[in-house]
Amino acid sequence: MLFGRTPELPTPEQALKGRATPEFEVPARHTVLGNPLLGPYPDGLEIADFGLGCFWGAERKFWQTEGVWTTYVGYQGGYTENPSYEEVCSGLTGHAEVVRVVFDPTRVSYAALLKLFWESHNPTQGFRQGNDVGTQYRSAIYTHSPEQEAGAVASLDAYQQVLNAAGHGTITTAILPAAPRPFWPAEGYHQQYLDKNPDGYCGIGGTGLQLDSPSETNWGRACPTGIAPAPSEG
């Protein structure tokens, strides 16, 4: 999987086993928004999980969005329990780098977050994003309800039409339920990385193509508010 070979996901049998408890602590609060990372969260907030390449730049896209209450980054979609960054980068955990977004649906809709997701990266690149190559950089949406899944699928179909019209390829984004795929928070130095390091690396860049406003489209109406209560822990 490494040293110039084409990236590929490990099987459960090939994946690193991990550990029962994390080897590090996650900071208590968001350095920009000031709110708790892992909870507790106020009633009525919802959770969305997005993988769109290096999570440093991806997280900043979401914390800058009005209606987002907190964000933090981690690893999801793989097999290894409580993985480290080095293990994820080895390609032997199966995880993607993911941003968890805790948001107020009365101020920003899930559909609006989907629009930001699609426009902030190139979802046609498979196991890479720009110059970043590896299974951890794949495009993914992990959903927390049937309504989120329906909205994500509808928005994918809509954005594929936009990409087709511009001569781009097929979207490779995985849309999968979050419930059986634990979200493991990343090390503290990754959290709000670009706030702590304003000149740090940001590998996020979209195609330059926009998705229609969700309020004007069928896919937007597939994403109602009141999707799911946010749990008190990450």
Describe the structure.
Helix content is 22%, strand content 17%. It is of the alpha+beta class and 234 residues long. A six-stranded mixed beta sheet has the order 7-6-1-3-2-8, covered by helices on one side. A two-stranded antiparallel sheet has the order 4-5. The chain starts with 45 loop residues before the first strand and ends in a 13-residue tail after the last helix. Mean pLDDT is 93; it is low at 225-234. It catalyses: L-methionyl-[protein] + [thioredoxin]-disulfide + H2O = L-methionyl-(S)-S-oxide-[protein] + [thioredoxin]-dithiol; [thioredoxin]-disulfide + L-methionine + H2O = L-methionine (S)-S-oxide + [thioredoxin]-dithiol.
Order of helices and strands: EHEHEHEEEHEEHH
- Could you tell me the mean pLDDT? 93
C-alpha end-to-end distance:
30 Å
Strands across the major sheet, in which order?
7-6-1-3-2-8
What general form does the structure show? Answer: globular
Overall helicity: 10-25%
Number of helices: 6
Number of strands: 8
Report the sheet with the most strands, covering strand number, pairing sense and barrel closure.
6 strands, mixed
Taking pLDDT < 50 over at least 5 consecutive residues as the criterion, the unreliable ranges are: 225-234
**In what range is the share of β-strand residues?**
15-25%
| Rg | 17 Å
Secondary structure class reads alpha+beta
